[in-house]
Write a structure and sequence with these properties.
This protein has one domain. Helices cover about 80% and strands about 0% of the residues.
């Protein structure tokens, strides 16, 4: 395990960033939705654009297991059945695009995907209510492909999934439960591509994820408390601004 971790050549600052991201991923899974978007550009700065997606995926899966365990009974499967086949198509598209571009191009694509997600979040903040999405097969297909692609390329499909589920006017627990199952299934589907095609998951990321698992769980427990005490609007504005700034930094 030590040799696998040493392969990353992390500095003290790098370790602190990874730990902070693990904490934020845990917090994200227990109610402070959107905060995990900030971890994507931060981890890309430490590991590189493509390699960071494998490291983050393993951390997300730990949080997904917690979320599914807690909210599994609230999932609305009819929405998942509409999206998941199309999401797989989006994942395959993301794999093909990501495999045939350079690291710089990948970082730039990652930045564009993140900024697009931020724009969606800003629009919803300004409107004060979710954007209405037609409940048609083609819209489900479009959003499914988009969520699969953005999830594969940057692990940032939350904004798109949030747009879809909020427009369906799901109750709070149903929203969380449905999203939890969606991301768990999508992240599991992505694993073979990361392992056998992109080669971004190996002994190093697995060892790092094992070490960071207690931090992710601590973040999940902390998130429960923070949700009660932090006003949601100021928090969301801070996250949106920080994520946008970090994404722009990836381009240069």
């Amino acid at each position: 395990m030590v040799a696998a971790l040493q392969s990353f050549h992390l500095t003290t600052a790098g370790w602190l960033i990874v730990a902070a991201c693990a904490l934020l991923i845990g917090i994200n899974k227990t109610g402070l939705n959107g905060v995990a978007m900030l971890t994507v550009p931060l981890m890309a700065a430490v590991f590189g654009g493509r390699d960071s997606t494998g490291v983050i995926l393993l951390m997300f899966l730990v949080g997904d297991v917690y979320a599914v365990t807690y909210y599994h009974q609230h999932a609305q499967w009819r929405y998942l059945v509409k999206l998941l086949p199309w999401s797989l198509a989006g994942i395959v598209l993301g794999v093909l695009v990501g495999k045939h571009i350079s690291e710089l191009q990948f970082r730039q694509l990652l930045a564009v995907v993140i900024i697009a997600g931020v724009v969606l979040m800003v629009v919803q903040e300004i409107r004060g209510k979710p954007i209405q999405v037609p409940e048609t097969w083609w819209m489900g297909a479009l959003l499914g492909i988009a969520s699969g692609f953005t999830s594969m390329v940057g692990n940032v499909a939350f904004a798109i999934m949030s747009l879809y589920l909020l427009s369906m006017k799901l109750p709070k627990n149903s929203f969380i439960g449905t999203a939890a199952w969606f991301f768990f299934i999508v992240n599991v589907m992505k694993l073979p591509f990361h392992i056998f095609v992109w080669h971004t998951i190996s002994a190093g990321p697995l060892a790092l994820d094992l070490i960071m698992t207690p931090v992710i769980i601590a973040g999940a427990l902390l998130g429960v408390t923070m949700v009660r005490r932090i006003p949601e609007k100021p928090y969301r504005i801070i996250i949106i601004c920080a994520t946008a700034a970090a994404a722009v930094k990836l381009i240069f």
